[in-house]
Amino acid sequence: xxxxxxxSFLSTYCCPQPNTIVExxxxxxxxxxxxxxxxxxxxxxxxxxxxxxxxxxxxxxxxHGFADSPVSWRESEHGFHKGGENLYNFVIFRxxxxxxxxAVGTYDDCPP
Length: 112
What we know:
Pfam families: Ribonuc_P_40
Strand content: 15-25%
Number of helices: 1
Helix content: 10-25%
InterPro entries: RNase_P_Rpp40 (IPR013893)
Oligomer: single chain
GO cellular component, one term: multimeric ribonuclease P complex
Radius of gyration: 19 Å
GO molecular function: ribonuclease MRP activity; ribonuclease P activity
Largest sheet: 3 strands, antiparallel
């Protein structure tokens, strides 16, 4: 409408409840071509942090493909148009339950 008013409002995001403030967080970025077996090995090693009660309540690993990769999931052609999204993310909890989120670009098939 023509009577839209400007606002300094940016977002409604707020931290979900319950939440815990932690003193430290650790971020590690690995780039390059990484085979699936190495990703599994990394997940297994990271889960060892749950052995120390004070170290971690949860952890997350995000694996992101290259935007211009010729393939996306398995042997499917990668349909690059704008963003080239191609990723999956594990959120693993202390009891080894996990959430798995997968994303693909507009022109890619859903992952298996």
